[in-house]
Write a structure and sequence with these properties.
Elements lengths: L1 E3 L63 E5 L6 E7 L2 E7 L27 E5 L13 E3 L2 E2 L5 E10 L6 E10 L2 E2 L3 E6 L8 E4 L11 E10 L3 E10 L7
Parallel strand pairs: 6-14
Antiparallel strand pairs: 1-4, 2-3, 3-4, 5-8, 7-8, 8-12, 9-10, 9-11, 9-13, 13-14
């Protein structure tokens, strides 16, 4: 089965490598990333790939030409095809395992997080899919991820623009729906040329597991020392009712 990637299970894997200029070391995958600016020349983040990189590129990273590159997923069974579309890398996966397609790379932990103030920077949040980053549209319909133990989760990506982004930032997030607000979630995540990979938030609101109707949810995200972003999205409940 060949399909544009959809998140079906909660599996935490490390990034395969992406935009040039990203930090090389991370928590859970090696030594700790420092909290300074992106390693290397930040201008390198704008330099497009003109041939297939040795490792899977970051989805949406710049590229040129009619490139189509295949990479084996870390599960050793599925194959990713990265195609240069509209000047950015787009990823699809060849699914062979029972239980659905593998997930895109998820955000990596890091420390210490940036503690200064980044003047002139902007923050945006958008879908954690395999294409180029884009902000959420107002009222956009999103799919929740139903974890293996039944917990519904919302996924998103963060983009820091307008300035040379730190390599490691603290992201604080809350969700609100129908008068209920989630506890603040806090995580220190790696930015690749100003963009995170997918970040999971548990959606704790009562009723969404069994009520098959559309819910509205407000997402509020703060990147420490950088700025804030928010979005209103919608999702269909009922995906986790097994009784």
């Amino acid at each position: 089965m060949r399909a544009r990637i959809a998140v079906l299970v909660w599996v935490s894997i490390l990034s395969p490598g992406g935009c040039r200029g990203e930090p090389a070391d991370r928590v859970d995958g090696g030594p700790t990333a420092d909290g300074g600016a992106d390693a290397g020349d930040p201008a390198a983040c704008l330099e497009p790939d003109r041939e297939c990189p040795a490792d899977r590129p970051l989805p949406g990273a710049p590229c040129e030409g009619e490139l189509s590159c295949e990479y084996l997923d870390p599960n050793g069974a599925d194959t990713w095809t990265y195609t240069c579309l509209g000047g950015g890398w787009d990823a699809q996966v060849e699914c062979t395992l029972d239980g659905g397609c593998p997930t895109p790379p998820l955000a990596e932990s890091c420390r210490p997080a940036f503690e200064g103030t980044l003047e002139g920077a902007t923050v945006a949040i958008g879908p954690a899919d395999s294409g180029a980053f884009r902000p959420f549209e107002a009222g956009e319909m999103v799919d929740l991820v139903w974890g293996p133990q039944g917990a519904p989760m919302f996924t998103f990506r963060v983009q820091v623009g307008g300035a040379d982004a730190p390599a490691c930032v603290r992201v604080e997030s809350t969700l609100a729906s129908e008068g209920m607000t989630s506890p603040m979630a806090r995580s220190d995540v790696v930015l690749h040329c100003g963009q995170s990979l997918g970040i999971f938030l548990i959606v704790p609101f009562a009723g969404i597991d069994c009520e098959e109707r559309v819910f509205e949810m407000d997402v509020a995200v703060s990147v420490q020392g950088v700025g804030t972003a928010s979005a209103r999205v919608r999702f269909m409940g009922g995906g986790g009712c097994f009784g």
